[in-house]
Specification:
22% helix, 286 residues, 15 strands, alpha+beta
């Protein structure tokens, strides 16, 4: 048996928490000359299961009890701040989608105009006869206004110059009026028909005043003055529901508005048509 003496340390389960501090220690070893030589020797614990016990006052929770309320406040603030950002994100998505759809609509409209080359409808007044105004403009001495029941027989021509676009006209919901100086004199309706491509259609309309028209003294005098000049201006307005057909596709119902300025040289039935000019208000038609 050699003269080397080794001091070994055993570890209990309670001292396992401090084992790392005791692994490297100076161990006195006796050599052959009986001299103590300090040496480092690493102690290795035998294999097994160890239970580490930590004092209760050294156990900490996250967050500590004194900071729990502060942690909850920070959490609530974070949730409040995240709300508006989510709303802004959703709003940006909606705006982006709308812009994208608008961009697609512009492209589709461009392709539509390039391929179909749509042209506006053309309207003109062919005849414009008057009844019930000539000789009835004399104002009774006991009245300050005059009640009349004028009638108009109007003929217009509708021309469709498009080669690939046709139109459906509907009487239901239509209105045709003749006015003088913003006074509505007679009303009527348009007729129902289909107008194919490259087609011209003549429409005759009988307009009446069912309940009569009250004409003020100022309007009556103005009408008589224009009659003496041989140039009486009237206004003809057509509001007609239409549908556009492109190939086999038929659109929704839209209102076609036609306004015509008509001038007559008198109020008799056979008075001549001096001039007429019509305009169509339908942006989708060119």
């Amino acid at each position: 048996m050699s003269g080397r003496h080794e001091h070994r340390y055993s570890y209990s389960s309670e001292e396992s928490g401090n084992r790392h501090e005791e692994e490297n220690q100076l161990v006195p070893v006796v050599n052959n000359n009986q001299a103590l030589v300090p040496m480092y020797q690493k102690h290795v614990a035998p294999p097994g299961t160890y239970v580490v016990q930590i004092p209760k006052d050294q156990i900490y929770r996250i967050p500590p009890p004194e900071n729990a309320r502060r942690f909850e406040n920070y959490t609530r603030k974070g949730k409040k701040k995240s709300g508006p950002s989510c709303c802004c994100c959703g709003l940006f998505w909606i705006i982006g989608i709308l812009l994208f759809l608008g961009f697609l609509a512009v492209i589709a409209s461009g392709i539509f105009y390039i391929v179909l080359r749509p042209k506006a409808l053309q309207y003109s007044v062919e005849s414009f006869s008057i009844k019930g105004l000539d000789g009835n403009l004399t104002l009774p001495s006991s009245s300050s206004s005059l009640k009349l029941s004028p009638e108009f027989n109007v003929t217009v021509k509708s021309k469709n110059p498009n080669g690939q676009i046709s139109f459906y006209y509907y009487m239901e919901g239509s209105e045709v009026t003749v006015s003088y100086s913003d006074v509505k004199l007679s009303t009527g309706t348009f007729e129902t028909f289909y107008q194919p491509t490259k087609n011209a259609k003549v429409i005759e309309m009988a307009l009446k005043s069912n309940n009569g028209v009250k004409m003020s003294n100022e309007t009556r005098i103005s009408l008589m003055d224009h009659q003496e000049l041989g140039n009486i201006p009237f206004e003809l307005d057509l509001n007609v529901p239409v549908k556009v057909k492109v190939g086999s596709i038929k659109t929704w119902t839209m209102t076609l508005k036609v306004h015509c300025d008509v001038s007559k040289n008198g109020l008799k039935v056979n008075s001549a048509l001096v001039s007429s000019k019509c305009g169509v208000k339908a942006k989708a038609l060119g």
